[in-house]
Amino acid sequence: IYSAEPNAFTAEELRLLEELSGDLAFGIMVLRGRIERSRVEEQIRRLQSEERYRQQRLMEAVLDSVESGIVACDAKGLVTMQNRKARELLGLNAESGSQEMWAKDSTLYHADGKTRLGPEEIPLLRSLRWEQVTNVEVKTCPVGRGPRVLLTSGQLLRDNEGKIFGAVEAL
Question: Are strands 108-109 and 148-158 parallel, antiparallel or unpaired?
Fold first, then answer.
């Protein structure tokens, strides 16, 4: 605020101008704080995302290095993870995900080696339905490989609150 004459403002006007400048300074400080907070929160989200990615890659590397097949699904039965050995043992590709695809692509058979397991009989999906699946014998006949007998065990997966979020199976 400007005046060409000295002492152009009254004491009350000066007090109001000082109050206004203090309010403006406070507002600018709050805005700068919000901007900084947003920047820090974004940096934290980015670092957490990077850490989750690193942990996921570590878990994938560990699972792909074990000589047991591991398959997991979500609460709807959609396959969310298959390690290298599971794909090898079952003759599945990485895209075999839904229950229907599993039933279609599955190389799992009953002990007779001729009758395919239906979706309701696949050990992983049985585990998802709260069934006890321990050392269940299945036969697998992947294309281009001879038949194999596998023992499979599975269990339901629950979060900290007890809510089901999937199942896992070891072959």
Answer: unpaired
**Tokens 């050392």, located at residue:** 135
DSSP 160: T
SS3 state at 76:
coil
- Express each pLDDT in 134-169 by its tens digit: 999 999 877 777 788 899 999 999 999 999 999 999
| Cβ proximity of 150 and 137 under 8 Å | yes
Identity of the amino acid at 150? L
Distance between CA atoms of residues 138 and 89, nearest Å: 12
Q: Which two tokens stand for residue 62?
A: 């560990």
Token pair recorded at residue 73: 């699904």
102-118: pLDDT as tens digits:
555 567 888 788 888 88
The 148-158 sheet, strands edge to edge: 79-82, 70-74, 164-170, 148-158, 133-140, 108-109
Q: Compute how many other C-beta atoms are within 10 angstroms of the C-beta atom of residue 128.
A: 25
**pTM (two decimals):** 0.66
